Target: Heat shock protein
Amino acid sequence: MGSLSTQVSVIRFFAYEEKVSKASKHTKIMLAFEVLGQGWDEMLGGAEFDLAIVDLLIDSVKDMLAKNKVDAADIASIKTNPKLMTRLKQEAQKAKRVLSANKETVVSIEGLYADFDFKHPITRERFYAASAHLFDKVTLPIDVALARAGVSKDKVEGIVLLGGGTRVPRVRELLTDYLVGKPLKENLNAEEGPAMGTAFRAANLSSAFRVRHIGLEDISSFPIGVRLKNLKPTTAEEKEFSKRGTLFPMNNRLHKRRGVTLAHSHDLHVHIFYEKDAPLPLDTTSDLGWFEVTGIKAAIKKYTLPDYNVISPPKIHLSFRLDASGMIDLVQGTATFVEVYSEEKRDNSAVSGDGQNTKDQKERRHVVTLDVVRHPPNDVQWYDAQALELSRKILMELEEKDRSVIDTANTLNALETYILETRNALYSNKIVEKISTEAERNKLLQALTQTEEWMANC
Model:
């Protein structure tokens, strides 16, 4: 349970034996895990619990302003005051953390509105009551994940907690009750765990790091479909061609291939998309782009009579790959032509008496590799040379700003050191006292003080 959403994965851990090397008879134990199912709630996270406390604070702020005879219109519009709302959200987050370890806390904000200070006590019970609608949804993603994984609740050995939202005591109570008393797995740092796991997974995939290898079998959370159409419109006499199907269903293993084969005589427009029933995140388009498959018409012209005895349309085979990152690609397209030819064969069987020539019908296959060009979805543009140059320019400007900030900080530190050393010298260095008058030293001290004040306002 993170700041904005809650995600649940049903994981199966297992071990298997693997040879130390191809020539060795010895084996070693390898650890691995596979994702069986996933569920999530995009509107259930730590920020939603913060907002529940904010709502409590807003009611109290309105009461405070009303007692101080603030205009009713100003009171009604406090939610549109960005400065006030930002401070309330910051204090609400702090209060939530305090209430995770204490039963009550006090939110205190100086000068929240005009010159009015704000102070309001909050108990854990009030927080729980305001968040009841959120607590009701805590275990729902688990039910969805288990259903998709085909695993019953009694088979679950434990729940590993990740994300700061799991630190709310009521959330832990609900999860413990869900597993009917089984202890929660709290051996990972809830905040650092995801980052550490990502780094370890990257090290496993890299050849530059020597870490213990742990296998991973991940799945695609969304079903992916394909629609085939002719690249160019057909003539009035021809029937409009369209074919669709599901390439990779939900929970399909990643790093897998799937092929589509059809008899066809025209270049193809291959559209890839998430299926309508895919539980996509909010504001996520289902469009995954399309592929332009050409070379079919040209190959048909080549493999025709009189040079080749091909009388049927070619078999078009499209090979799709769902890579380890869940990205789909059309890796290859081929057109296979079946040529029928006759081969003479002399029959010297005893039944026929004298030898006769016969013709055998045989087939010869010709495979042509088609041209495949990928086109991005409508909301994604290719990263061309112009965009690359613009990104490089922006990065250089940001680097220059960072360098300027560092140089300024180093310069201010050096100036501050100089001021301290000079002031100490004016007070304690006897040589300085001998070669200068008190008026000169006071004048220099005044200049140092003015410089310090200038630095404080930088």
The mean pLDDT is 87. The chain has four domains: 6-43+137-216, 46-135, 224-375, 385-456. The first helix runs from residue 46 to 67.
